Amino acid sequence: MYNNSSNFPGKFIAIEGIDGSGTTTQTKLLYNWMKKRGYKVYYTKEPTGFLPGQIIRLALKGELKYSDKVLALLFAADRLLHTEKIIIPKLRQGIHVISDRYVMSSIAYQGSLIDKEWVKAINRFSLSPTLTIYIDVPVKVSLKRIMTERQKKKEIYEEPYILEKVRKTYIEECIRNRERCIVVNGDRSIDEVHSDILKTVRNILD
User: Fold this and answer.
1) Tens-place pLDDT, residues 137-179
2) Does the 20-205 domain belong in CATH 3.40.50.300?
3) What is the dihedral of CA 184, 186, 191, 195, to 10 degrees?
4) All residues at 6 or more sequence positions from 127 whose CB lies less than 8 Å from its CB, including other chains
5) pLDDT per residue over 11-33, tens digit each?
6) Shortest CA distance to 197 belongs to which of 183, 180, 178?
7) Distance between CA atoms of 119 and 26, rounded to whole angstroms?
8) H helices of 61-138, where?
9) Smallest Cα–Cα separation from 13: which of 115, 28, 148?
10) What is the pLDDT of residue 154?
């Protein structure tokens, strides 16, 4: 379904997980680790700063109201811009790209609430990452981190019953794509999670 990122000299790594799992922390740690070791590497994230991404951020905060289908289309549009304008050009230059979330986020989040196959279809122009790292944490841990570490109002998907569905879908998708997806236990210290991620990343960089 997706274009194969292995056609490019750069490696494409996506880090995924439910809210509060530590995707941003681990993406930045991996980026810094690679940069210090001389790799050409680029850090990016979704939603992006493109217009669809800006609209999505407002919708996630509840400041704009859209149906799940409209949000799924916005995510797909933002991802296509991300892919065409940022990810592919970097990979073509031999630059490794690390993204805090990518297509599996849409499959897990919107795909848990509406038809998953339709969500996959509207994202069919996305890339298949060289490696997807899913950081798994229990929902109770996720929600505790959201409310204590971020000290912010919950976003629209940050409800226990939604996150349970999302977590289940993530695990199912990782099993389905086990050749390109690994599951890392995120209910540990930041350093322990980072260490596990490095074990896998070293294999695709060597």
Assistant:
1) 999 999 998 887 655 677 899 899 999 999 999 999 999 999 8
2) yes
3) 0
4) 2, 3, 4, 5, 12, 83, 87, 88, 102, 103
5) 999 999 999 999 999 999 999 99
6) 183
7) 26
8) 68-82, 88-92, 103-113, 116-122
9) 28
10) 78
